[in-house]
Write a structure and sequence with these properties.
The model is unreliable at 1-21, 151-164 and 166-179 (pLDDT under 50). It contains nine helices and no strands. The chain is mostly helical. Helix 3 packs antiparallel against helix 4, helix 4 (80-93) packs parallel to helix 6 and helix 5 runs antiparallel to helix 6 (116-129).
Length: 179
C-alpha cells in the first residue's frame, strides 16, 4: 500500500532537494519545456522568471538560482517566495547567515504560508551546517511538528550530517506513518 504523499508512478515529488522522485529526469524535462513555452510567450514576465528559478533549482545551478532570487526580490520585495528562492540558493552556496536572514524574511512576510515548515527546516539546516546544531533544534522541531508526516533525510541531502547524531534524536525527526 502506498503512503499518503508518496509518489505515484510517473509523478515527481521534490521537497527542496531531498530527491524524492519517481522520475527526476522527466520532471526536469517537463520544467524545461514549460520554461521554453513561457519564454516564447513573455520572456520578461514574473511567471517566466519563477519558472526559470524552478529549472535552475532542479538542475542544481545555485549561483544562477541566486541571481534569479535577487531579481525576484528586487521586483517583489514583499513576496515570501522571492526570499525563499534566495534562501534556498544561499544555503546550497554555503552562505548560511545570509540564507537564514532570507528565510526569516520570507516567514515574516507570510507567517501563514504553507512553506513555513520548509523554511524553518532550511534555517535549521543552515545552523547545523554552520556548526550550530543546538541552535537548529527548535527550528527542526517546529518543522516536524508542523508536518509530522515529513521524512527528513539529512545525510542524503547534505552528506555532512552523520546518521545517529544526538541532535537528530533530540529533535525527534520521525518518518511518515502508514495511513
Amino acid at each position: 500500500a502506498r503512503r499518503r504523499g508518496q509518489a505515484s508512478p510517473g509523478s515527481y515529488l521534490v521537497w527542496k532537494g531531498l530527491g524524492l522522485a519517481a522520475d527526476r529526469a522527466a520532471a526536469v524535462q517537463q520544467a524545461e519545456q514549460a520554461l521554453v513555452r513561457l519564454e516564447a510567450l513573455d520572456p520578461a514576465s514574473p511567471m517566466t522568471l519563477r519558472a526559470r528559478g524552478t529549472v535552475l533549482n532542479l538542475r542544481a545551478e545555485w549561483p544562477a538560482l541566486l541571481g534569479v532570487g535577487d531579481e525576484l526580490v528586487a521586483l517583489f520585495p514583499n513576496e515570501a517566495s522571492a526570499h525563499a528562492t534566495r534562501c534556498s540558493a544561499l544555503l546550497r552556496l554555503g552562505s548560511f547567515d545570509d540564507s537564514i536572514a532570507a528565510c526569516e524574511r520570507a516567514i515574516r512576510i507570510s507567517p501563514g504560508d504553507s512553506r513555513v515548515p520548509v523554511l524553518r527546516a532550511h534555517i535549521g539546516f543552515n545552523l547545523v551546517l554552520a556548526g550550530r546544531p543546538t541552535d537548529a533544534v527548535p527550528h527542526l522541531r517546529a518543522m516536524v511538528q508542523a508536518s509530522p508526516r515529513t521524512l527528513v533525510v539529512l545525510p542524503k541531502w547534505y552528506g555532512r550530517v552523520r546518521p545517529g547524531s544526538t541532535w537528530v534524536d533530540e529533535v525527534g525527526l520521525v518518518p511518515p506513518r502508514e495511513v
